[in-house]
Amino acid sequence: MPDLLAMVVDNDYWLSLLNTSATDMHKQMQDKSARKGRPELADFVDRRFDVDVEAEILDWIEEHNIIDEEDSVLLTASKRMADGSDIEGIASGIWLLAEWASLGTWRCLEGRGFLYLEPYCGESMDQVGQLYEQKTWTAAISSITTLSKQQYSEAVVVDWMARREQLGETLNEKNDPRILSTMQSHQRHAESLHGLAELITEGNTILLTRRDWSSYMSAGFGEFKIRRLLTASALEGK
User: Fold this and answer.
1) pLDDT of residue 174
2) DSSP state of 182
3) Helical residues (DSSP H) of the chain, grouped into ranges
4) Three-class SS state of 223
5) Signed CA dihedral, 30, 94, 210, 186: sign only
6) Least enclosed by CB within 10 Å: which of 29, 146, 156, 174?
7) Domain boundaries in the chain?
């Protein structure tokens, strides 16, 4: 089962990266100077190490032959896409720059996403695609932030236990030794998501959702997708 990803991105910083020339971007990643601008990691979510993302951004710039371009990274990437370059490969670089501008990523097994979101989004969910919809996250974040971290965590666990009972599954640790570890996992994920919800409501950030191992072109939030960003840039020439 794939993971559900929810990445909190510093909106202004990401836009500044996209507007940086490809030549300057390559230099900043190569000499490590870009690290000074990377947002501080939030302590309740995960993020890959600087050196790993730097290396992938450098590889992306070189692989798609945009190293000597003076146009912005976004415009150059859009031109490469229009010229017939690997569309998915082009989009992966835009995601990498968003990852560099992120405060971290919350992730969970996709199936568990219903447990963390459905009771708080104001409607029942019967399609996986709803886990990635703007209205789901907007409603859930609004609802989750009315609760304390402990209240939300406890509510998630109680809901999980009720769902198990409805399915006829045991809650006896003697019969299922994984019960305790699963409960603790739900608590950690709930506490982390509560922190993300508070972060989204406090700062100038954008939430990008994506199904792990899916197309980078569909990554985004609501009507905003990386596909739309690249296409608009190509049409507008900026």
Assistant:
1) 66
2) H
3) 11-18, 22-30, 50-63, 73-82, 87-100, 113-117, 134-144, 149-166, 179-202, 226-236
4) coil
5) positive
6) 174
7) 3-236
- DSSP character for 40? P
Structure-block tokens of residue 218: 């569909």
What span, in angstroms and rounded, lies between the C-alpha atoms of 64 and 79? 11
Do the beta carbons of residue 18 and residue 73 sit within 8 Å? yes
Q: Two tokens at 19?
A: 């507007």
Strands (E) located in the chain: 3-10, 102-109, 205-211, 220-221, 224-225
pLDDT at residue 82, as a whole number = 83
Residue with tokens 């840039």: 233
What confidence score (pLDDT) does residue 234 get?
Answer: 53
Helix (H, G, I), strand (E, B) or coil at 46: strand
Whole-model pTM over 0.85: yes
Low-confidence ranges of the chain (pLDDT < 50): none
**DSSP letter at 97?**
H
Q: In what order do the strands lie in the sheet with 224-225?
A: 102-109, 3-10, 205-211, 220-221, 224-225
pLDDT in the model for residue 20: 95
